[in-house]
Amino acid sequence: DSGVTQTPKHLITATGQRVTLRCSPRSGDLSVYWYQQSLDQGLQFLIQYYNGEERAKGNILERFSAQQFPDLHSELNLSSLELGDSALYFCASSVAEKARQYFGPGTRLTVT
Amino acid sequence: QKEVEQDPGPLSVPEGAIVSLNCTYSNSAFQYFMWYRQYSRKGPELLMYTYSSGNKEDGRFTAQVDKSSKYISLFIRDSQPSDSATYLCAMSALGDTDKLIFGTGTRLQVFP
To answer: Which pLDDT tens digit goes with each residue over B69-84?
Structure first.
């Protein structure tokens, strides 16, 4: 158990809908990262927050957004969902920048 | 060409064998190198973390980094059936982003 928690574990929704994925980092970790894992693209970096501020963006679609709250938990919002958004979404956390990243168990999103 | 290349396998070995897993990369800015283990439908688990070149050993696992050849390896000694998983290499560069660039993963099967 990495200490990173993610909810929900599974999510099934229809095209065009909006969902919110939640992540709680390990105790003491200030940095949160979101990754998407699909069969054809592998693990892809989406976005990073550090102590509430956005630090880096990867290949994140404009339909996706995220934020990190004062208690350091983070939410990833996915809107106007398409079939191709079906994937595993992982959150990772680290104590500081350039430190080891520890991954949560993931949220499996299925868009039908 | 992908920044990080990894043979997807599958690699099938008998219990007790020495396993060698490898990744090559093209970006000379990569300075941090990691190996993650991922069991089916679970989050990636950090196994090894190295900075720059050299070797690092932890129990049955040894990580090697050869920056001159842009080549990293993970060796598993006395492999066990419980080592059966997908092994992902990951890298990040010095600079203002912590994003990890992952290989596609090598699926390892250790049979009794």
So the answer is: 999 999 999 999 999 9
